[in-house]
Amino acid sequence: MLEVRDINTYYGNAHILFDLSLTIAAGECVALLGRNGAGKTTTLRSIMGLSPPRKGAIEFRSAEIQGWVPYRIAQAGIGFVPEDRRIFPVLTVEENLKLGQKRGTSETTWSLERVYQVFPKLKQIKDRAGGNLSGGEQQMLSIARALMGNPDLLLLDEPTEGLAPIVVEELVHAIARLKQDAMTVLLVEQNINVALALADRCYVLDHGAIVAEGSAEFIRNNEKLRSDLLGI
Ligand code: ATP
Fold it and tell me: Which residues form the ABC transporter domain (predicted)?
């Protein structure tokens, strides 16, 4: 579904990603692992067109999307859930969800009802203002809003960061459910247990380059890799 080929991304003159390549097949959940500053968020931003790569190619469902503006990439079917969640504080939960709804299409596969099935908690608090939600509720809302855009690929940037263990569990359950529904997911996650519980395959990034790739099982059993590259 997605093929990233040899991308190089810069912030000004700072070279951040070096010939980075990765692939994701339809229905896969792929995790991007690595220490702080390794380039995980920049990879997601590159795919989304928010930090467009200067070199390399990004193919999404047979379209070359590098150079497209983020809005067009979203329209093409990539949903992005940023680390800071971007909830509109004065709008209610349901209003936030409606804002995510894809316009100009009749084949709406995600409805409010279906989103509430994955996140029953959101239905209970649908009239509450976004600004009055807990961190976990905001995270659920942010993922749910991205789903309302009917993505074929979901990019999740550290969805469990800063959340209490019980809320993390709830989120893992919801993401696992999306996987069962055949959603394709690229997951950036610092919580290695969450990443390994959800991912079919993992890439490890270090200093802006992919340095290892393998199944969750491979990462779990590779102690040297975990200590050298992930600091675990
Ligand atoms: P984290 O978990 O800390 O977010 P990460 O793996 O997602 O880490 P990135 O956020 O992609 O890493 O950052 C990669 C590198 O780019 C880091 O060295 C960071 O300092 C640098 N960087 C990030 N944003 C900018 C920016 N706006 N301008 C300049 N450098 C940046």
Answer: 2-232
User: CB of 208 within 8 A of CB of 45?
Assistant: no
Tell me how long the chain is: 232
Tell me the best of 11, 81, 83 to mutate to test the pocket of ligand 1, counting ligand atoms within 8 Å of each CB and taking the most: 11
Cα(43) to ligand 1 centroid in Å equals 10
Domain limits, the chain: 1-77+155-164+180-232, 86-151
DSSP secondary structure of 56-68: EEEEETTEE-TT-
pLDDT digits (tens, 9 = 90+) for 121-167: 999 999 999 999 999 999 999 999 999 999 999 999 999 998 989 99
Q: How far apart are the first and last CA of the chain?
A: 31
What is the CB < 6 Å shell around ligand 1? 11, 14, 16, 34, 36-42
Structure tokens at 32: 């991007």
pLDDT of residue 70: 95
Q: What is 1-77+155-164+180-232's CATH superfamily?
A: P-loop containing nucleotide triphosphate hydrolases (3.40.50.300)
At 211, list the tokens. Answer: 């340095």
Residue in the structure block whose two tokens are 């047979």: 62
> Is there a contact between 192 and 41 (Cβ–Cβ < 8 Å)?
no
Residue nearest to atom 28 of ligand 1 (CA): 11
Do 1 and 78 meet the contact criterion of CB atoms below 8 Å apart? no
Residue the block writes with tokens 């894809």? 102
Residues 230, 33: contact at Cβ < 8 Å? Answer: yes
